[in-house]
Amino acid sequence: MKSKSPPIAKAEIAKPLRGKKTWQQKLADDKDLPKVVKLEGDMVRRFGGATLVIPAPREVDALMRQVPRGALTTIDELRSAVAKKHKAESGCPITTGIFSWIAAHAADEASREGKSDITPYWRVLKARGEVNPKYPGGIEALTALLQAEGHQVFQKGKKWFVRDYEKFVRPFKALK
Predict the structure, then answer these.
(1) Does some domain include residue 60?
(2) Cα distances (Å, whole numbers) of residue 55 to 26, 63, 79
């Protein structure tokens, strides 16, 4: 008779399979980034300029870490900050979004390991103040974290937003 394996607690961290990187390892892998690329044709209009910076994951994480308790930022603000740092006209919306997602999961992973100095990913919103449902914990956990910092979160259709988020967005300090 086979014995059943004990159930895995939700808070347990699964060890990565051989060859799989942890979120923190993914965050630390800069992949030869940042890069500033020149755009042509329709891409100039699409991305908002002739030069586009593809940031490094740790640059996005460093910006996210600058957002203090009670303040907020957006992916577009992150894009603008990396563009300014690299003297580009725009920051890549795709990689900035992906790297903020990786930073969020790396922070959650670090928190589950008992670390307390983590990236406050719940303070980073999508366009128009939308809460990012793909961040760790989903809408329920993110809403609780945002409300604990004094923000009002409301539902509009299937999406969740922070009320008057613009009042809480702070400019970034220059990155080195």
Answers:
(1) yes
(2) 14, 11, 9
Half-sphere CA count of 124, side-chain side, radius 13 A: 30
Looking up residue 57, the CATH number of its domain turns out to be 1.10.10.10
Distances (CA, A) of 166 to 2, 68, 101, 129, 161: 58, 15, 21, 8, 11
3 state DSSP class of 138: helix
Tokens of 25: 């390892």
14, burial (CB in 10 Å: exposed 0-12, middle 13-18, buried 19+): exposed
Q: Which residues contact 9 (CB under 8 A, 6 or more apart)?
A: none
User: Strand 35-38 to strand 51-54: parallel, antiparallel, or no bridges (unpaired)?
Assistant: antiparallel
Q: What is the pLDDT of residue 8?
A: 40
- Residue 42 belongs to a domain: yes
Total-model pTM: 0.85
- What percent of the chain stands above pLDDT 90? 81
Q: pLDDT (tens digit, 9 = 90+) per residue, 34-60?
A: 999 999 999 999 988 999 999 999 999
Q: What are phi and psi of 18, to 5 degrees?
A: -50, 130
